[in-house]
TrEMBL record:
Keywords: Hydrolase. Its EC number is 3.1.1.31. GO terms for molecular function: 6-phosphogluconolactonase activity. It comes from the Eukaryota. Residues 9-225 form the Glucosamine/galactosamine-6-phosphate isomerase domain. This is 6-phosphogluconolactonase.
Length: 243
C-alpha cells in the first residue's frame, strides 16, 4: 500500500510528519516497548525535527535509532548524517534514545558496513531487522538511502548493510541499508519538498515501470509519502490522499 500526503508549505509538512511519527512511536512503544527507526540524511533530519523536537508526548528514551545510510566521515563532520540529526533533534531533547552510529573507520566503507551490520545483528538478535519505521529522502535521480539508479547495490540480496565507494552524490564513501532490510520494515515514509523534486516525484509515483530505487521500496507494511505542494505540483489529483 502506498499513500501520498501533501501539505501546503514545508512547515505544514513538518507538522504532519511530527504527528505521524509521534503516532507510530506511541503505537510501537505500546506494542513492544521500543520504537526502532532508521533515518536518512539530506534534508530529512531538519524536516523531521522541526516540530518533533518540541513534542513532549514522544518518549524518546524508548527510541532506537539507526541510520538508513551514512557517510564515511567523522561524526562531527559537516557531511555526517548523525551530526545533522544531532544538531536538529538529539541535542534538543532531554531523554536520550539508544543511538547506533557508524564506527570510526575513516573512509573504509567495507569495515564500516561490516561493523554496522554487526550492530544491527546485535540489536535485532540476529533476525533480519524489521524496523518500526524507516524514514527516507528522495534524491533528484530517484535514489534513496545510498542506493543509486543503475548501481549493482540495487541487486544486493545477502548483506544487510553494504559499502559504497562510488556514490554519485558526495561524499563517495558511504554505507547503506540494502533492500532486504528496507523491504522488511513495518513501514517506510518518504519525505520530500521543493519544486526541484516535481518531475522525479511524478515519475516515481505515476510511472512505476521505471523501476527507480525509490520504486523498489516495497516493504511488508505501508509506504507513506510526505510531500509539500511545491514537490507535488505535477501529480494527478487521484495520486494524493488527505492526511
Ligand atoms: O545521506 C544522504 O545523502 C541520503 O540519505 C540521501 O538518500 C538523501 O536522503 C537524498 O539524497 C535526498 O536528499 P535531499 O532531501 O536533501 O534532496
Amino acid at each position: 500500500m502506498s499513500v501520498t500526503y501533501t501539505f501546503p508549505t514545508t512547515d505544514a509538512l513538518s507538522d504532519g510528519l511530527n504527528d505521524f511519527v509521534a503516532k507510530r512511536s506511541s503505537e510501537a512503544i505500546a506494542d513492544h516497548g521500543a520504537f526502532t527507526v532508521a533515518v536518512s540524511g539530506g534534508s530529512l533530519p531538519k524536516l523531521l525535527s522541526k516540530e518533533l523536537r518540541q513534542n513532549s508526548n514522544v518518549d524518546f528514551s524508548k527510541w532506537v535509532i539507526f541510520w538508513a545510510d551514512e557517510r564515511c566521515v567523522p561524526l562531527d563532520d559537516a557531511d555526517s548524517n548523525y551530526r545533522e540529526l544531532k544538531t536538529h533533534l538529539l541535542d534538543a531533547i532531554d531523554s536520550k534514545p539508544e543511538i547506533h552510529t557508524i564506527g570510526a573507520f575513516g573512509k573504509d566503507a567495507e569495515k564500516a558496513a561490516v561493523d554496522y551490520e554487526q550492530q544491527l545483528k546485535g540489536y535485532f538478535k540476529g533476525e533480519l531487522p524489521a524496523f518500526d519505521l524507516i524514514l527516507l529522502g528522495m534524491g533528484p535521480d530517484g535514489h534513496c538511502c545510498s542506493l543509486f539508479p543503475g548501481h549493482p547495490l540495487l541487486n544486493e540480496t545477502s548483506r544487510w548493510v553494504a559499502p559504497i565507494t562510488d556514490s554519485p552524490k558526495p561524499p563517495p564513501e558511504r554505507i547503506t541499508l540494502t533492500y532486504p532490510v528496507v523491504n522488511n520494515a513495518k513501514a517506510v515514509a518518504f519525505v520530500t519538498a521543493g519544486e526541484g523534486k516535481q518531475d522525479m516525484l511524478q515519475q516515481i509515483l505515476e510511472q512505476p515501470q521505471l523501476s527507480l530505487p525509490c520504486q523498489r521500496v516495497k516493504p511488508n507494511g505501508p509506504v507513506f509519502w510526505f510531500v509539500d505542494d511545491a514537490a507535488a505540483g505535477k501529480l494527478q489529483k487521484q495520486t494524493i490522499s488527505k492526511y
